[in-house]
Amino acid sequence: MKIVDLGAADIATAVRSGALSAREVTEAHLAEISAHDASVSAFLLLLSESALQGADAIDAKRAHGEELGPLAGVPVALKDNMVLRGVETTCGSKILQGWKPPYTATVIERLVSAGAIPIGKTNLDEFAMGSSTENSGYFPTRNPIDPARVPGGSSGGSAAAVAAHFAPLALGSDTGGSIRQPASLCGVVGMKPTYGLVSRYGLIAFASSLDQIGPFARSVGDAAMLLSAIAGHDPLDSTSIAESRFDSAGIHGDVRGLRVGVIAEMTEGISTGVAVVLEAAVQALKEAGASVETVSIPATRFGLSAYYLIAPAEASSNLARFDGVRFGLRVEGADITETYEKTRAAGFGTEVKRRIMLGTYALSAGYYDALYGKAQQVRTLIVNGFAEAYERFDVLISPTSPSVAFSFGDRSDPLSMYMSDVCTIPSNLAGHPAMSVPFGAGEDGLPVGIQVLAPALAERVMFKVALALEQAAIAPSLPIWRKAS
Q1: Are 168 and 218 in contact (CB under 8 A)?
Q2: d(Cα 315, Cα 34) in Å, to the nearest integer?
Q3: Is the pLDDT of residue 345 over 90?
Q4: Tens digit of pLDDT for each residue in 374-432?
Q5: Which residues are catalytic?
Q6: Cα–chain center distance at 233
Q7: CA atoms of 375 and 394, how far apart (whole Å)
Q8: What pLDDT sits at residue 296?
Q9: Exposed/middle/buried for 436, CB within 10 Å: 0-12, 13-18, 19+?
Q10: Tens of pLDDT along 346-363?
Q11: The pLDDT value given to residue 269
Q12: pTM above 0.85, yes or no
């Protein structure tokens, strides 16, 4: 087996034992990126030099008999909305081109402390606003399973990097499904933790009450291991949950006696291929000993509408800081007001401008109560609806995406693109954990993910069900160049 085909747990074990050196692992992944990223475009920036230096430092520690971390020598790709000191961080936007932050995100510090090696910054829809990575200010990312199709978004670069075996692990951010939806379309595992379980310090904000950092991996176990490394209270994040942590030890796939609910509203409008895979997943859980019933959470039907008022409203506020004064791009005008206007007009892309204008409108005098206020009331209804469902069920399941990966340009209408996240948005509004597990193939043999949802801080039971699904799933999808060989 090639080094790049190993999972994170296997790499860390091999590096700790000396069967592999961290440099060997890093060089193998950099070589795979060099050979194939031209057809995927997963990365905005490679950290080759610092990655090799980090690998050598780990090998030196092992040679001196020092204890190595749980992710020793494991390359990790980073979505380019997480800051790394002295390294250009763009959020996929021209407005931040050339900006090098003076500090490092907490999640990256925790990764490095665990022995992981940041290998590069991945592409994304600009400021994480999109569902296909077509909205990047630089170039689109392609799906390694079928490069004629999108990888999903907004964390499309991270999902593609893991699916292409450029890195066994990656970090993404999830505001309305931006980890789970691309994970489904690329055939990998993607997970959004409980809001506040993972620090947002150093994550450039899109919508602060919704954003959450989470893992990508090619297996459920590796995703749990990565979550263990980054979870926990951070005093630098005011929304961080006190005394929170996550331990992946002892997670198993025994679901006997668990109560699983299939969310009826999230099965509406899904493609035939996705529906077939969902039914197979339900049957697999039943055969594994879980009880599975349909449950209705009516308020989730309005999740998309509420989200596209709340998230743009928060984005309108958060993105006001990018004005040509302190960060990145500056286009000079006759006065400061014209400088603001020219900088933002030149630096922001179409989708970002659309959401800023929508959010500003929703917060404006005379519309705040009718739009933003009502959306927050819907959010409360969704929270209450999930609470009622979890009185009857341990976890809930649904499709992750209503369709398989679509072709470039297929969803040029914004509303059709927004519908890509109809199944994932409700858990962001509720602040609950959810994850996508690749389970089968839909139309054109493309991967389909099953979404597992759980109550706040119930990640362990969610991972248990995810592992049971993984154990019953078909063989994983491979990048197109691997299938041809």
Answers
A1: yes
A2: 35
A3: yes
A4: 999 999 999 999 999 999 999 999 999 999 999 999 998 888 899 999 999 999 999 99
A5: 79, 154, 178
A6: 20
A7: 27
A8: 98
A9: buried
A10: 999 999 999 999 999 999
A11: 94
A12: yes
Spell out where 377-476 has E strands.
395-399, 434-441, 447-453
**The two three-digit tokens of residue 230, written as one number:** 């980054």
pLDDT at 413: 87
- Whole-angstrom CA distances from 421 to 188, 302, 304, 429 are 17, 12, 8, 12
Q: What SS3 class is residue 216?
A: strand
Mean pLDDT of the chain: 96
Residue recorded with tokens 């997670």: 251
Please answer whether residues 196 and 241 qualify as being in contact, where contact means their C-beta atoms are separated by less than 8 angstroms. yes
Confidence at 483, pLDDT banded by 50, 70, 90: confident
Tell me the sheet residues that pair with 121.
Answer: 45, 78
Domain 3-252+462-483 - what CATH class?
alpha beta
What is the helix, strand, coil percentage profile of the chain, to 5? Answer: 45, 15, 40
445: helix, coil or strand? Answer: helix
Please state, in angstroms and rounded to a whole number, the distance separating the CA atoms of residues 249 and 227. 11
Which pLDDT tens digit goes with each residue over 209-264? Answer: 999 999 999 999 999 999 999 999 999 999 999 988 899 988 999 999 999 999 99
Q: Are strands 169-173 and 75-79 parallel, antiparallel or unpaired?
A: parallel
The string of pLDDT tens digits covering residues 322-334 is 998 888 999 999 9
Other beta carbons within 10 angstroms of residue 24's beta carbon come to: 17
In contact, 445 and 145? CB cutoff 8 Å: no
Alpha-carbon gap, residue 210 to 315, rounded angstroms: 11
Which single residue is written with the structure tokens 């994304």? 124
359 is written with which tokens?
A: 């959010």
**What phi and psi values does residue 350 have, to the nearest 5 degrees?**
-60, -45
Strands 189-192 and 434-441: antiparallel
Per-residue pLDDT tens digits for 261-300:
999 999 999 999 999 999 999 999 999 999 999 999 999 9
What angle, 0 to 180 degrees and rounded to 10, lies between the N-to-C axes of helices 22-36 and 48-63? 160
User: H-helix or E-strand containing 215?
Assistant: strand 213-217
Helix and strand counts by DSSP (H, E) for the chain? 16, 11
> Per-residue pLDDT averaged across 172-179, rounded?
98
271, containing H or E segment? none
- Alpha carbons 135 and 92: distance in angstroms, whole number: 8
DSSP string, 325-387: SSSS-----SSHHHHHHHHHHHHS-HHHHHHHHHHHHHTSTTTIIIIIIHHHHHHHHHHHHHH
Structure tokens that stand for 436 in this block: 């996508």
368-377 burial, b at 16+ Cβ within 10 Å, e below that, comes to eeebbebbee
The domain segmentation of the chain, as residue ranges, is 3-252+462-483
